[in-house]
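Hey, quick one: can you model this chain's 3D structure?
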Amino acid sequence: MNNLIQDLRYAVRMLLKHRGFALVAVLTLALGIGANTAIFSVVEAVLLRPLPYAHPDRLVMLWETEASPGNYPLTGPDYLDWKQQNHTFAGMALTFWPSSYNLSGQGEAAHVTGLPAEANFFSLLGARPLLGRTFAPGEDQAGKNHVAVLSYAFWQKNFAGERGIVGKPVELNGATYTIIGVMPRDFRTFSDVDLWTPLDMSRGKLGERGTHQYRAIGRLKPGVTRQQAQADLQIIAQRLQKQYPDSNDKENAVVVSLHEQLTGNVRPGLLLLLGAVGLVLLIACVNVANLLLSRAAGRQREIAVRAALGAGRKRLIAQLLTESFLLSLVGGVLGIVLAWAGLRALTGLMPSAAGQPFTPVSDFSLNGAVLAFAFGVAVVSAVLFGLAPALQLSRVDQFEELKGGLRTTHATGWGSRRVKDALIVGEVALSLFLLIGAGLLLRSFQRMSAVNVGVRADHVLTASLALPAEKYATSAQQVAFIHGLQQKLAALPGVETAAISSELPLQGGSNGYIQIPGQPDSLTDGKLVEWGVVTPQYFRALGIPLVQGRNFTAADGPLSQQITAQLVAMNTDHQAMRKLEAMIPVVINHTMAATFWPGQNPIGKEFDQGMTRMQVVGVAGDVRQFSLRDKPIPEAYFLPEAHPLANIRIVLRSSLGPVALAGEVRGAVRSMDDSLSVFRVRTMPEVIAASLSQSRFQTSLLALFALLALVLAAIGMYGVLSYQVTQQTREIGIRMALGADGGAVLQMVVLHGLKLALLGIGIGTVAALACGRLLASLLYGVSATDPVTLTALPLLLLTVALVACMVPAWRAARVDPLVALRYE
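Sure thing. Here's the predicted structure for all 824 residues.
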């Protein structure tokens, strides 16, 4: 301990004596440690931290499979059978998707998002309220389900944290709900949920088999594995296949760990960023190691004196490593400050987690685990950058050093020079590896941004509203409201076209399977068709071309309404349904025509969706409905008269600035029904930009880290070459005194630097090619061996290296031989 205290005191004196060196080293380490700490705090919160529920390792998410690949939501009847017949679950809870509510009774109607859930939802998660209670058994039945549990944020925003809120009424969709509880600040489930209401679990309200529309979570019994639970549910699913062959023929059960379900989409990107900041830290350590090696030449006599006075090699290494640890700890403290600031910026820039089933992490913080990680990184960094200089210095020849003489001609030594050169090569290789990764993602983002969505986005405003089922219970009421609103919107000043639809491009929607009379089921087996409910003006409003046939006409609406009413009246009389000769007119997209009627004229073709018969009257251009990465899938559009439309999307094409219409749209809706709220008012370019937000965020961060690595590599190369030029001043003076001109000296220094850079570039390129598969899943339209990236970025790094070499080379070429020969 006495030795440690003595070493620390001496280390502090040495660093204070060489403030410039200490400042550069500390700032370099702070950047690396701070970046690692900030990214790790996100990784810890999302990937490593246990979910904030009771026994989270036993929580799973339940899905079904269909003929098409992938996992699908559950059907209500299948869920009830699973819940009743399983032997491996302690409990299951069903939830719907986040739903829109109109909050009224407090001035102007406002939009809130609620999650309908089974009554045992909170108890299954093991969650307790901050105020009041959660759902009681039986409150998920019709007539008893008008109660609500508020989120903490919603309680604070709308009720100012009033603690007497429990028992008070709130108006949702024109119906009165009683507030029974408030959840704690850190409790979250579905993203951006303001409140929870009981899901009506009445058997008749859960829909028919084959209608996949619910999510479910389950809690495993103690000692039961996920594989055992899945095998249990698959036995039940196989039994249901035999019992209900029409609806459950290809359906099976899938059980996924809840933690895996939550992190599956973000895990690759977060691990990529963590790896990137790890490389930045490694480059920072290389720079500090080079600084220490350069500084070591000036300390050789000091170390020789210590050794002559009896200090052993271990004692010398311990003292030198103490200085490195002190540097690293100071850099770590400053890095934590930078991480705190960076984390605040990251939280604001991070894209919304919309679309994720759960978002259990409400914030990211520098907690104990993150601070322990930062301390560990500081310690490891100290070893990484301090060990090589300490070993190098501890091997000093004390007799040769104490004799003095021509010390400067041998100060660096070939061993020291080789170490520095190797560090520079490694630094360049790591920088290029990171640059290529960022370049590939940037090229991928550019390709994705240039994808044709299939619409004309300019001068288009979109908005959403929800029609409450209690007030608009029938199709006729919904259709009357839709047409009335469409006419009011079309009459607004500056509006060229007004349309209403069930979905917007890149926002997803509903889908189902079809059957084509006269064709084998194998043609449509496993192929989903996207359903879009639109008014006839939809295609013109978004600039979607009609490539064949016609648009909907005034006669198509009454016909669709008549056929739909007949199907509803027939209920389950399938034979009577099949005898209907009239068919609902639909417009399909180009992909659907090419998929099911290749090489044929699709106009007049027929297909069935369940018991509903449809006839193609037109073919529209393809629109990407889910994401820019996904190719268009078959899609069919029909009129609101053919299908209930409660969640409305407004689309306006305007000759004026579309944002200026937002107030007019709200006024038009209020004139129809002042209890409805208009929300998510965005221009179409904003909708497209939102779909790119996650890729933009990830690419921007990686590019920032790659740029930081490039700057550090350039500084490192400049510093090493500058120091070598200083140490070789006498040698350069002798060369010039013997006749070498400045150009030869310039060439010597530059060629040495470029040789190191080229070797590093070669190693970095090979490493990037070898690890290309790690990025493949994150790329779009670009391969991991993209020739543009693999050519441009090495040239960029070589250019930066050349610039870093030129400054010390230019200084070497200006050495005065007379001054150099008197250098000692």
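One thing worth noting: Residues 405-414 have pLDDT under 50 and may be disordered.
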